[in-house]
Amino acid sequence: MSNEIDELLHRSAEPLRPSAAFEERLALKILEIMEESDAAFGGTDSVALQGDVAAEPERRRRLRSLVGAVALIAVAALVAGALIFGETDDRSPVITDPNVTTTSLPVDEGDTIAVVEGESIQDALDRAKSGDTVVVEAGVYEERLRIRTDGLTLEGRGAVLKAPSFPEGDCTFQGAGFGKQITISKPCTTEEPGARTYNDWPTARISGVTVSGFTIDGGAAGIAVLRGSEITVRDNEIRDTSGFGLFAHNSSSVRFENNAMANVASARESGIWVAGDSVEVVIAGNSIADARKGPGIFVLESREIEVSGNTVAGACGAGVSAVNALDVLISSNLFEANTVQCEWNFGMVNGVSVGGSDRVRIVGNTVSGQSHAALAAHGLWVGDTEEAVFEMSPAGSIEIVGNKFAENDIDVAISAGTATGSENVCDPPSEAPLLCTG
Known about the structure:
By secondary structure, this protein is of the alpha/beta class.
């Protein structure tokens, strides 16, 4: 009998509730045990046995059998409870039923805090906890925002941020306070040890933050990530700022994706700027128009950077510039007429500019319209960095593959480093025939 119940309890495959057929067979077996107990204590045989001293061994045998059956019933109940509620010991075999589909239990993803026009976004951010999502509905909000909580999501749904009249407060640069519309960082101190240019620095790292869906209209700068990790900034529009659009400093695993920037301009500022030994930054699918005072995308003293699928036009100095950088991939971008003259030119206007960088791959880009009456204009320029501007650094290995250069004064100019290339097309043919063919 115990073997039969044991067999019923071990025919399974999924760790949830047993099927109706399984429960019915188990109930029939328990009923059979109960009928035997009736025979032992309430039936004719039972009376005869109780009055017969010679039959005492037989009565004890039946009692032992009944006790064993009750124990099996208890075990079956415990197992059924484990099957129903999923409470099994990792050290025990999992008993399951093949007729049931397993589903995962829901995971707590935090609360959603809604903000409507007229309410404060910052108040919602201040009371949010890790894992929460702050959703900002359509409207105009005159606020500068600081995100200081790990694991927070800030989502705009037609929300427009405009610069307020009050000063920015902490986490400013060079003591002036650029007035960033959204700052993703922990609270700041008054100085960064060993800094050359920054004097207000986060006390710790912030991680796991996502910002999406906002329009930043005007103000001094867009969105800054300071000492961040696992940060995503996507699907935002930034326009008419006097400073950078997006900025990451001393950060890791940052993604700037599908953002649109137009008319971002300030002294030596860029549409997207990555600096301060940032690592593993992806700049993908963004559009940048009229960054009039700096490169469209500027990578400074950082490593493991991917710049892919972006469109940059009307920038000063370069569509993309990598200076003193390591392990950079520049792929599948469109750089067009980045010929604005400003203090960032250093005598040149380039579609792609690589200075003092090593292990750089330039693959599958289209570079056109680099032509200027007064400055040297290149589709691609590679050289060392100048000590007067940045820390001196020699150019290293540069791989140039599958790019198209068109209507540039000079398509490819290599003044330093070791460049290799293939399958690049130049129109008209370049003076660097080993790297570019007509």
